[in-house]
Design a protein that fits this description.
This protein has 681 residues and is an alpha/beta fold. The chain has 28 helices and twelve strands. It has a five-stranded antiparallel sheet.
Length: 681
């Protein structure tokens, strides 16, 4: 019998000498209580020492045991097993009970340890996901020590992390006391700028009691929310699913589960997005997932590149659709004030039907399919750009109202601009003034041009498809207007004979409109007036308060030869901590930003300026970019840049030596502390 819930596997075999033996393998925490007294007292202590040594180097361990069965015991047990296997209800519970009845008084045979080697690129992918602001929870069946060492090897945690252990809690009260202690000691008065990063470690036994009490689950989430990583060890597939549901239902966040085996299926199905890795453990995870990848490192591209692109595309398309339709309809709303709300339209019915179908569709499709605000290589080098999607920055109420406000302004300009254009001084060839349909056609033309210009301002990359979409939008309206103009003329002649009157409102309107100089002036002037506030706002925003992706593009344009490490170094030293930024900006301007690197750069600036970063949240590498890139954009540095660079390099060498010595001492202390913890275990 085998079960992931019982965390052990058993088989009954008949040996060549005629003896009947029960062979068992399983997790040490599960198998030790099932051993004989002799095995627990004499054989487990040296074996446990070997298991701990294996776990420290990241090996996956199991215990193996056996029990010799008499013929009578086996015959009785086999009858009970067959009866349980034929049960029509509660079959799984009955089989588990029968298996537990024979899995006792087991003699220890030995322990096994195997290496579960990480795939290529896993440490780098996890590190980049962490830089992107994604919280990582590891749900594994490994021992605590094995899971911690694997987490260290794959950059999930580091030696600087403080581990909060919630392990060996054999009752609900013990689990509650442990969580409360950790919360009051590490979370209640925590200062993120001073205290070391935290990582939470739990085992399956403790997690079983925590998940049984909703109050403890909430406390677990309160602690886990302040931890960089959470590692759940010795957990069953059911517990994996319950942990995912706990996070999903209580924190109201988007969850993603990724796994490669059948024991990950329940977890994958419980998350909002499930990803299966097709590998050597079968295709069960792949068949139950939303997306399938061949290796874990591809998750980085799936999330940080394509996930970010698609989020921004969808957010823009939804908001832009509101904008262009609100603009189109509001122009008719202004007409209602002049027609006593009589429901009179100023657009021909055919024009209203083809607005979203032909003239405003292609540019949106080009943006939604090929739009890239930041090229792929830059997104991969700067995973922090993903944070905009985490906080839903591009799809917010503020953005919606800004688009609607822009549409209301544009509709006002277009409607009253067309009224001003068709003043009484504008006469037709027969000496009469132009009517409602001519004014409506001019307004329609300005609307098409305005929505096309607006989306053109939102294009961040230009391909042949973008140019083709813009050309199709404008030329299709011109061609359609001319064709429909003469088709309406034909329909007007046919209406004389009672054939039909469809399209007669557009009779001669478009051709007559194109002959008027005032119309051409309005077509050129009104759309420009509509997008002028957008252009001004984008200019001011880009130069006064640029977004991260804008600065990343400028960084790539001004320094195209930077390597990934150098670009990450420049990025990490600038940010959105404006109090510190304003204090050091006048000093930063003297130095080429590439010369200031991470913590070393922070210490250099601190010594050069006398400004302490502790009050504002740590070192210079905690800053995001905002407010400090103007010297980089303008490429203007006060004083002599070469002399400033030499000064910084000299100071960097001095501070770097000091920091290196300090880090060595800290690492030795951390190592000794880790060794002491291992000895305690």
């Amino acid at each position: 019998t085998s079960s992931t819930t019982r965390k052990r596997m058993s088989v009954v075999v008949e040996c060549p000498d005629g003896s009947i033996r029960l062979l068992v393998k399983g997790a040490d925490s599960i198998l030790k209580p099932l051993l004989t007294e002799h095995s627990r007292t004499r054989e487990i202590p040296p074996t446990q020492a070997d298991l701990d040594q294996y776990a420290r180097v990241g090996l996956r361990t199991l215990l193996a045991g056996q029990r010799v069965l008499t013929k009578a015991v086996y015959t009785k047990w086999n009858a009970e097993y067959n009866e349980a296997a034929c049960a029509l209800s509660g079959r799984a519970e009955k089989l588990a009970a029968v298996a537990e009845d024979i899995e006792r008084e087991i003699s220890l045979v030995g322990a096994t340890a195997i290496e579960d080697k990480l795939q290529d690129g896993v440490p780098e992918a996890i590190a980049n996901l962490g830089r992107a602001g994604i919280r990582l929870w590891v749900l594994t069946g490994d021992k605590v020590e094995t899971a911690i060492n694997i987490a260290l090897s794959c950059n999930l945690i580091s030696r600087d992390f403080e581990l909060l252990r919630v392990t060996k809690c054999n009752s609900l009260s013990v689990a509650q006391t442990t969580l409360s202690t950790h919360f009051h000691q590490h979370i209640a008065n925590r200062d993120e700028t001073v205290d070391p990063p935290l990582a939470l470690v739990l085992d399956g036994e403790s997690l079983e009691h925590i998940l049984a009490a909703p109050a403890l689950g909430e406390q677990l989430l309160a602690i886990g929310h302040h931890c960089r990583s959470v590692i759940c060890c010795r957990v069953s597939p059911l517990q994996k699913s319950l942990v995912v549901r706990l996070v999903r239902d209580n924190l109201h966040v988007r969850t993603l589960a990724i796994g490669d085996g059948a024991n990950d299926v329940s977890m994958i199905q419980a998350a909002h997005v499930g990803i299966g890795i097709s590998g050597n453990e079968g295709q069960q995870a792949v068949m139950a997932s939303d997306y399938s990848i061949a290796q874990f490192r591809f998750l980085e591209t799936l999330l940080l590149v394509h996930g970010r692109w698609n989020y921004k595309r969808i957010a823009f398309i939804v908001l832009y659709s509101f904008y262009k339709n609100f603009l189109f309809v509001t122009t008719q709303f202004w007409l209602s004030w002049f027609t006593l709300f009589s429901a009179q339209n100023m657009y021909d019915s055919m024009l209203m039907s083809t607005f979203n179908l032909l003239f405003a569709a292609a540019p949106v499709m080009a943006k939604g399919i090929f739009g890239q605000d930041v090229p792929r290589h830059l997104v991969e080098q700067l995973p922090q750009l993903y944070e905009a999607g985490l906080y839903n920055y591009n799809y917010s109420t503020v953005h919606l109202w800004s688009w609607l406000g822009s549409a209301a302004y544009c509709s006002t300009v277009i409607f009253f601009g067309t009224i001003f254009t068709f003043d009484k001084s504008v006469l037709a060839a027969d000496g009469l003034t132009h009517g409602l349909w001519t004014m409506g056609t001019l307004s329609y033309t300005c609307v098409v041009l305005t929505v096309t210009l607006s989306i053109t301002l939102e294009y961040h990359n230009w391909t042949a498809f973008h140019f083709a979409a813009i050309a199709f939008s404008l030329l299709s309206w011109l061609a359609f207007g001319l064709v429909y103009n003469y088709a309406s003329t034909l329909l007007a002649w046919l209406s004389v004979f009672g054939v039909g009157v469809v399209g007669t409102n557009f009779y001669g309107v478009f051709a007559e409109m194109l002959r008027l100089p005032n119309v051409w002036l309005s077509v050129l002037l009104l759309p420009c007036l509509c997008v002028l506030p957008d252009v001004a706002f984008k200019y001011l925003q880009r130069n006064v308060y640029p977004e991260n992706w804008q600065i990343a593009r400028e960084l790539a344009r001004l320094h195209p030869t930077l390597t990934k490490a150098e670009r990450q170094m420049v990025w990490s030293q600038y940010g959105d901590m404006r109090p510190a930024a304003k204090q050091i900006e006048k000093y930063i301007n003297n130095f080429p930003p590439v010369q200031l690197a991470g913590a070393v750069g922070g210490k250099v600036v601190e010594q050069l300026t006398g400004f302490s970063f502790a009050a504002d949240g740590g070192a210079l590498d905690a800053l995001r970019i905002r407010g400090l890139f103007r010297p980089l954009r303008e490429q203007k540095f006060r004083g002599d840049p070469d002399a400033a660079a030499a000064k910084v390099q000299q100071k960097s060498a001095e501070v770097s030596a000091t920091i290196t010595g300090t880090n060595d001492v800290s690492e030795n202390k951390a190592k000794r502390s880790s060794d002491d913890d291992d000895d305690d275990d």
